[in-house]
Amino acid sequence: MLKTDILIIGSGISGLFFAMKTAKKRPDLSIVIMTKKTAPNTNTQLAQGGIAVVTNHIKDSFEQHIKDTLKSGGGHCDQAIVKMVIEQAPERLEELLKIGTSFDKNQEGQWDLGLEGGHSQHRILHHKDSSGLEIEKKLLKIIEQLPNIQLFENYQVIDLNTETKQEQTTSCGAFFYDKNTDQIKYIRTRCIVLSTGGCGQLFENTTNPEIATGDGIAMAARAGAEIEDMQYIQFHPTALFRGEKNPLFLISEAVRGFGAHIVNEEGKRFLFKYDSRGELATRDIVSHAIYREMHESRKKHVYLDCRHLDPSAFYQKFPSIAKHCNEIELFPEKDLIPIVPAAHYQCGGIKVDRNGLTTVKNLYAIGECARTGLHGKNRLASNSLLEALVFAHQASENINSTIDSFEFSSKILVPKFTGTENKKDHVTFLVLKKEIQALLTNFYLSEERDTDFAFQKIKLIKNAAETLAAKQQITIPFIEFSNMLTVALIIIKHCKKRKTPFIMSLN
Ligand code: SIN
Which residue ranges does the record assign to the FAD-dependent oxidoreductase 2 FAD-binding domain (predicted)? Predict the structure, then answer.
């Protein structure tokens, strides 16, 4: 039976940064990273914008970054956490630079700071338009060299195992599906760090990759951890519209920061009707405005207009975006780019304290799956990679000082399932997945948010899945689908608890 001191689930920026820091500090500890596909297959590697950090203390200040974050969060942020994250940013940035992460500089050799919606200053460090990929690559390189880290790819964690003594629940292991051997196994641990990302795949239009099925939130909820604020799903205003395609390609907010306009079917800008910051208002406001415009014009999208921008500067700054557009015969220097808002980021999640500790003992959550209090109702652009770094650091420090008192549990469970992969299963669950996406999208974007109706529909989908699952053994599509179902129910429940419709009335 496998055994490790620390189990990290997920291989995005938060999990890798945590692993790197902890492994270097504590060579005596064994660390396992499990990831359900290959290691780079994460939301992190798709992050285009960059990291918001105050580096120019003449034009900018921590206070301004804090103010922008609080404003974007709509009065629902935890002020102490906001201050901690923003003031820690330069130190965490320094650590990224030390491992060779490269961010763009201007001709004077200064950071080429980008501007994004809701920021009052240029403060986004970026690596062209593929900042996440650059960070992911550098972290993975270091991880490979650290002897006390084992990276297990194609290992889908199914559920966490916990033990409850004197009303205190403690995490002590996890069941996982080893896709390489098609077996279900168990790993014992002294502590678990969830860095499993978000749940964008619950929606029809999303920028999140297929892996974003809310696994960590569902597992944490089943283990008894508190989940908070799942009613705050952030929609990114500028995903490339491609009909029914899922996921949608993201067009970074940095493009608007560089001067792109959003225009309607008549080629007219309309955002100033909604906010004096126009295209540079926060994402919630811009997305609301686009939905309203789409509704009024009965169109499925609006457009991003880059035609007035310097083409060579555009192609140099945004090579991946330009390449992607060109591949589908769109040329930003002469064509309008069809765009639509898409589910992009989950602002709530597994409730954690300032050290990333959940309400279950020895269970930590960092990155998008965690609800730290930084984002409130609407995350400020490019604060997510920053949050991931800061909370990975906090959790690493905390575990370093406490793990020596954590015992391995003597409770060993033998998995009762054996795995099978079955093609028919994939197709059926794909159909059910589409039903969940349609249901949640309609529910979430409607002003009414009829929770009773949504619960009833979810029940029908759940029954269909259970009938199907009863006929055969556990499979990967079933695991992911069950997690999506759990998270959909949490979102609907949280929307019922606090009625704060994200999208304005479309009537
Ligand atoms: C973007 O580049 O627009 C996305 C960055 C983020 O989600 O903060």
Answer: 5-385
**How would residue 1 be classed by pLDDT, with cut points 50, 70 and 90?**
confident
| Pocket test residue of 13, 43, 48 for ligand 1, highest count of atoms within 8 A of CB | 48
Check if 129 has its Cβ closer than 6 Å to any atom of ligand 1: no
332: three-class secondary structure by DSSP: coil
382 lines ligand 1 (CB under 6 A): yes
- Identity (one letter) of the amino acid at 148? N
pLDDT digits (tens, 9 = 90+) for 203-248: 999 999 999 999 999 999 999 999 999 999 999 999 999 988 999 9
The 10s digit of each residue's pLDDT in 106-153 is 999 999 999 999 999 999 999 999 999 999 999 999 999 999 999 999
Q: Is 283 a catalytic residue?
A: yes
pLDDT for residue 484 is more than 90: yes
Sorted by where each starts, the structural domains of the chain and their CATH numbers stand as: 2-231+347-405 (3.50.50.60), 237-344 (3.90.700.10), 425-505 (1.20.58)
Pocket test residue of 382, 385, 387 for ligand 1, highest count of atoms within 8 A of CB: 382
**Is the Cβ atom of 381 under 6 angstroms away from ligand 1?**
yes
Q: How many CB atoms lie within 10 A of CB 489?
A: 18
Helix extents (H) in 177-252: 215-222
Which ligand 1 atom minimizes the distance to the CA of 49? 2
Could you check whether the bond before residue 415 is cis, i.e. omega within 30 degrees of 0?
no
